[in-house]
Design brief:
single chain, mainly beta, five-stranded mixed sheet, four-stranded antiparallel sheet, 22 strands, 44% strand
Length: 272
């Protein structure tokens, strides 16, 4: 048996027939990745059945033909680095961050068909690097070395525009390694807390102990969840004393109904 594809005949392997199909299911030919069809079109498969005497009598061949409709895999474009949408990256100002997008090989390699916007600004296409590797089978890579990242949330959008339009967007939060505004909390912790790492007045801190030191008041970010911890001995770990407190304004509070006559130390933490 000699199946054909692209005007080429290849030998098939003999296999054990399946009971449900009888003696007809004796031969099989599988397509590997190197000969896979990547277009959407009608294809024709021709099978030649040879007899034992076909080598002598060349006309003793039965030919079977089947028409099949093939469907190309859909074209894709996605941002691979940064890998997590909204993820936090600690980068010093002199660090170069490699933005990587992956796209189908069917989209071609013309950089003018791609657009990379960072915070709404188109990055120069002359700096796009397109490689055949880095993203897996059937994909190419588009790299851009970014060295002008700013503290806070940065929006990265990659677009392919031709007869087909594809786009992907990731948010990337950048923090520096130190304490940019000098308020005593490092940039990474401020981003987790939802405060502004460039504003010394925007920081998570207890601002007041009122009502006989039983009312704990702190600066908060609306929508964030907090818990209050306390201890009477700083040599012992603090324990949670409050339920989850969701902030509805820039100031939140919790009333501690188990005060200590001598002293009590409080801490407020942000919950995920």
């Amino acid at each position: 048996i000699w199946p054909t594809r692209s005007q080429r005949y290849e030998p098939s392997a003999v296999i054990r027939p399946q009971n449900t199909m009888g003696a007809r299911a004796k031969y099989r030919k599988s397509c590997d990745a190197s000969s896979a069809v990547f277009t959407t079109a009608k294809k024709f498969a021709t099978v030649r059945l040879r007899e034992a005497t076909s080598s002598v009598f060349t006309n003793r061949i039965t030919t079977l033909t089947r028409t099949v409709n093939t469907l190309a895999p859909p074209s894709v474009l996605f941002i691979n680095s940064p890998s997590t949408d909204g993820g936090i990256h600690v980068l010093n100002s002199n660090v170069v961050f490699a933005i990587q997008s992956c796209f189908s090989t069917s989209l071609g390699t013309n950089p003018n068909l791609f657009s990379l916007h960072i915070n709404g600004t188109l990055q120069p296409r002359s700096n796009y690097i397109i490689l055949a590797s880095g993203c897996g089978l059937g994909l190419r890579s588009l790299y851009y070395n970014w060295n002008s990242h700013v503290i806070g949330t940065n929006t990265i959008t990659v677009t392919y525009s031709n007869s087909l339009v594809l786009s992907d967007t990731h948010a990337m939060v950048v923090a520096r390694t130190g304490d940019s505004d000098g308020d005593g909390m490092n940039d990474y912790s401020e981003i987790l807390a939802g405060t502004n790492p460039l504003d010394a007045n925007s920081v998570l801190r207890i601002t007041e102990l009122a009502n006989g030191n039983q009312l704990v008041v702190w600066d908060s970010v609306p929508g964030r969840n907090y818990q209050v911890l306390a201890t009477t001995n700083l040599f012992q770990p603090m324990q949670v004393i409050s339920p989850v407190v969701q902030a509805s304004s820039s100031s939140s509070f919790y009333f501690d109904n188990t005060p200590d006559a001598t002293n009590k130390f409080y801490r407020v933490r942000v919950l995920p």
